Amino acid sequence: MPIDQALRMAREAELDLVEVAAQASPPVCRIIDYSKFKYDQAKREKEARKKQKVVHIKEIKLHPFIDENDYQVKLHSLERFLKRGDKAKVTMFFRGREMNFIAAGRKVVDRFAQDVAAIGEIEKPAMMEGRMITMVITPK
Question: Are 88 and 82 in contact (CB under 8 A)?
Fold first, then answer.
C-alpha cells in the first residue's frame, strides 16, 4: 500500500507507523504504539541476558615439584571450578634450574588431566610456551 495511505490509517487509529523489516522487498511496516513496542523489545532483551551464562577462565598455577597435599588442594579447586561451569587453565611454571626437569612438570600436568577426566575434558592440550606449560580444561 502507498506510504501516504498507511500514514493516514496510522493517524486515524492514533498510533505510529513502524518499519519492522527494512531488508524485505517491499519493506514491511506495522501500525502500532511505538513506545509500547520499544518497551516490549527491551523487556525481551533483558530476559535473554538473564538466561545467558557467563563462562570465566580460572587459572591454577603449579611448579614441577609440588607436594602431594598442595596437589590435592589445587585439584579440589580445579574440580570446584569445573562443577561451577567455568573453564580452567592449568599453568606449570619453571624457574631457574627447574627448566632441566620439564619431564617432571609434564608428568604433573598429565596427572591433572587424568584426575579430572571424569568431570572435564581437555580443550587445549598441554603445550610448552617459553618457561611454562599450559593446558585448558572445560567442563563436560
Answer: yes
CA distances from 16 to 32, 41, 58, 77, 140 (A): 5, 16, 50, 56, 50
pTM (two decimals): 0.62
Between CA 90 and CA 121 the distance in angstroms is 13
Q: CA-CA distance, 135 to 88, in Å (whole number)? A: 8
Summarize pLDDT for 87-131 with one digit per residue, the tens: 999 999 999 898 898 999 999 999 989 999 899 999 999 999 889
CA separation for the pair 77, 88 (Å, rounded): 10
Looking up residue 9, the CATH number of its domain turns out to be: 3.10.20.80
Do 84 and 45 reside in the same domain of the chain? no
**43 and 106, same structural domain?**
no
